[in-house]
Amino acid sequence: MGSLITQKHSDGTFDVRPLLFAQLYVIFGFNNGYMIPCAYCLTTKKNEITYTKILNHLIALGQKFNVIMNLLGVALYRFFTVALCPEGDKTIHFRLFVTHTVIFESVALLSKFIWDNIWNVHDAIINDLPRTNSHVEGYNSRLESNFPKHPHIYHFIELLRDEHLYQHHKAEESDMQIRKRKKLYNNIDSKLKEFHKEHIKETITNAELAIKCGRAVKTTPIKT
Predict the structure, then answer these.
(1) In the prediction, which pLDDT does 86 show?
(2) Fewest Cβ atoms closer than 10 Å to its Cβ: which of 39, 48, 209, 217?
């Protein structure tokens, strides 16, 4: 995973892991419409220490081969309407969460995520990058269809070698062409960009921007 990819994602999957491990954690790079798995990590735990060790190890490998590893943006986007709004506009975020009762587990969790530029996907929309982790979920489904449930470790390694070869060809393909997106997703992103322009011109309010974005992606308000 080098500096040429435009976005990073990560996710853990559980059914394809050998029973000795807690999960298979995969880090992806997005390039020209292709979500390419770049690192497979079998972990015995699922905590911050484990993920920190993984990222530090990848950075060390990059230094060894003179590759700049920018892993700051490795994250899964939790898809709420607020993530579609411009980062840093706290008025939009606060009003959205108060008036539309999107519920977080705690105030601390709210403050952690609501203004996080890693979690926010507004810039991804403007730059025609994925605003959800649907590509990643699709890849997990692929693994589950090609791997048996909880394979023996040696069988797992054999299957992963085959998967790596297939994905290597996909990575080369991503350097030669841009994968065409579905028209539906392009239309939604066009609406979101238009709402953003209206907001910059101050023809719609902060709250109206949040509501319009939510309707464009068909989110359902939570009632209490």
Answers:
(1) 57
(2) 48
> How far is Cα 33 from Cα 10, in angstroms, rounded to an integer?
16
pTM of the model: 0.66
Tokens 């996710």: give the residue. Answer: 11
Distance of CA 165 to the CA centre of its chain: 23
Other beta carbons within 10 angstroms of residue 194's beta carbon come to: 12
Q: CA-to-CA distance for 140 and 26, rounded, in angstroms?
A: 9
Which residues are within 8 A (CB) of 48 and not within 5 positions of it... i.e. 6 or more apart? none
Domains and CATH numbers, the chain: 7-75+133-176 (3.30.420), 81-129+181-216 (no CATH)
pLDDT band at 151 (very low <50, low <70, confident <90, very high): very high
Residues 137, 3: Cα–Cα separation, whole Å: 24
